[in-house]
From TrEMBL:
Organism per entry: Fuscovulum ytuae
Entry-linked SUPFAM superfamilies: Transmembrane di-heme cytochromes
Record domain Cytochrome b561 bacterial/Ni-hydrogenase: where: 8-175
Cofactor: heme b
Membrane topology: Multi-pass membrane protein
Protein name: Cytochrome b
Predominant location: membrane
Keyword set, alphabetical order: Cell membrane, Electron transport, Heme, Iron, Membrane, Metal-binding, Transmembrane, Transmembrane helix, Transport
């Protein structure tokens, strides 16, 4: 079962969820390492890795949105206020995982250096060369990652709590269905 249905997450959505989740954890750790450094020749590769994996995350998020327009995922279980909160949190995570890599790309382009990913592809310069754009975009990049971290703690806590309450929420994201 590759596609989603009203009560199950298909394989593609589950692979996208866990693949992007893994990437996001790596990206947050890499980013926090970079924020303690001064850019130089010795650590240029780390910046390159962060930018490459960040653009990969952005591409996978776009693929995820297209996939979910084609085959919508099941609604959060339970209904009522809890389901509305879950849905709101999911939408906010989607928005952040677009805005964070975009602000990183804009800030990097604004420095005037080429943004090269995977040592191979030069991305279009999507911002004018400008210290103001650079400063604003990276301030946003930093602030939004803090919001993302807080939301992800909430997200994981809620998933674990609901699984312990026994409604099968976590099982559904791992195995597809809440119960056999
Ligand atoms: C999901 C994707 C991404 C995440 C989660 C992420 C996360 C982070 C974090 C947590 C920081 C440290 C912020 C701070 O404390 O100052 C950071 C810094 C940085 N990010 Fe990202 N990032 C992502 C994508 C990107 C992309 C796509 C680019 C560029 C193409 C990029 C370029 C940078 C740069 C250059 C820095 C260092 C900024 C500085 O020196 O102040 N990031 N990122
Ligand atoms: C760390 C990065 C993570 C991100 C960015 C993330 C993002 C998301 C998003 C956007 C959804 C909405 C469903 C969709 O559109 O695919 C979702 C659902 C879900 N996530 Fe995560 N997630 C992460 C980590 C985790 C972890 C570690 C767990 C387990 C503890 C988890 C458990 C779940 C579950 C159970 C659902 C399904 C909720 C439902 O049925 O309504 N997620 N996640």
């Amino acid at each position: 079962m590759l596609k989603n249905s009203a009560d199950r997450f298909g394989l593609i959505s589950r692979l996208l969820h866990w693949g992007i989740a893994g990437l996001v954890v790596v990206m947050l750790s890499l980013g926090l390492r970079l924020s303690d450094m001064e850019p130089g020749l010795a650590n240029l590769w780390l910046y390159g890795l962060h930018k490459s994996l960040g653009i990969l995350t952005l591409s996978l998020m776009l693929a995820r949105i297209l996939w979910h327009l084609y085959t919508p995922p099941p609604r959060p279980m339970g209904g009522g206020r809890q389901a509305i909160m879950a849905r709101t949190a999911h939408l906010a995570i989607y928005a952040l995982l677009l805005a964070i890599p975009l602000s990183g790309w804009i800030g990097s382009a604004a420095t005037g250096l080429d943004v090269v990913i995977f040592d191979r592809w030069t991305l279009p310069a999507i911002a004018p060369i400008s210290p103001l754009w650079e400063e604003t975009a990276f301030t946003l990049h930093d602030a939004l990652t803090k919001v993302l971290i807080a939301l992800l703690f909430l997200h994981m806590g809620a998933a674990l709590k609901r699984e312990m309450d026994g409604d099968g929420t976590l099982r559904r994201m791992v195995l597809g269905r809440a119960r056999d």
